[in-house]
Fold these 2 entries.
Entry 1:
Amino acid sequence: MNSPPSGTWRRRIASRHYRSAELAEVSDPNVIHELQNKLDHALIYEESEVEGAAKAWVKDEGNGALTKWLTPAKHRFSGQFADARVTDPGSDLELRA
């Protein structure tokens, strides 16, 4: 079985891509802040989890370390999504601030 690529390798590939990436159209820089606001209000993640995941990524600690920090938010999101589908099964789900 092949092992997944190392973080260093992933960053090297990503840096090649991002040096040449372009936007197809003008984008609104506030979109990221609006999304963060919606996610903050939804209580999907905790600040300590974001900090832990960022440190694990920067220190190239591997997938296990990232999974440790991201799994709690994944479970909260999955639970909220399932609850929303039960409450209103026919609706398009969107994060609401």
Note: The chain has a mean pLDDT of 80.
Entry 2:
Amino acid sequence: MHRRVTITMLAGVLAGCAVPPPSRDVPAGFDRNALLTIEAPVAEVTHRPPDLLIVLAAEEQSWRCLLGPPAALAEQGLTEALLAPGTPMVAVGHPSLTDAHLLDVTVITVAGQTFELH
């Protein structure tokens, strides 16, 4: 399986395109002016209260991705069954300011479905 990581850093000064919509709060400790896109298969799914945490196994490195509370995800139809290890996924989110491989995910595409989180 071809694995790749597509990383796109967007500066907030570029027409404000990287600034999240006002209704979306970016947690403290994450860069609200940058968005990364990670495309890789799911390696692991764990619960890190209060969030569901998935690990994406990219070629060069693994990324830990915070998705949100499992109950809120399930209400949107994003179940742990869709996130089974080996499932290809695209995650878009804000990188951590202190952890080079941690992402607060805002949009996820899996099994042909796109989910807006938080």
Note: The longest strand covers residues 36-48.
